[in-house]
């Protein structure tokens, strides 16, 4: 049986890091806060919400990508795992740029 690699799960939430109210993304799974860029370590596969870790994912770097815009690199503050995800259109551009410079 083939395992799905992406589950659309587009829900709004209150950011566990900064407290911002985050609305649905509308075109893909909303998986991080557009204000502070933090996320939660909740997915095993994108959108599945099956990871028991639940630690905060701290944005540590953003990588420019010609086709996808920016890719945000995260490190989980609970388990230390590094994960990546595509930046959303409404993410704070200044924070994304600062992360490319390693600030």
Description:
A four-stranded antiparallel beta sheet has the order 3-4-5-6, covered by helices on one side. Strands 1-2 form a two-stranded antiparallel sheet. The mean pLDDT is 87. The protein is globular. The longest helix has 8 residues, at 93-100. The chain contains one helix and six strands; from the N terminus they run ββββββα. The chain has one domain (13-100). It starts with 12 loop residues before the first strand and ends with a helix. Helix content is 8%, strand content 28%. The protein is mainly beta. Strand 4 and strand 5 form a beta hairpin.
Q: How many separate domains make up the residues?
A: 1
Ranges where pLDDT stays below 50 over 5 or more residues in a row are none
- What is the residue-mean pLDDT, rounded to a whole number? 87
SSE succession: EEEEEEH
Q: How would the global form be characterised? A: globular
Structural class: mainly beta
Distance between the termini: 44 Å
Task: Specify the biggest β-sheet.
Answer: 4 strands, antiparallel
Strands of the biggest beta sheet: in what spatial order?
Answer: 3-4-5-6
Instruction: Please give the number of β-strands.
Output: 6
Percent of residues in helical segments?
under 10%
- Rg (CA only): 13 Å
Helix count, DSSP H or I runs of 4 or more residues: 1
In what range is the share of β-strand residues? Answer: 25-35%
Task: Give structural attributes.
single chain; mainly beta; 4-stranded antiparallel beta sheet; 1 helix
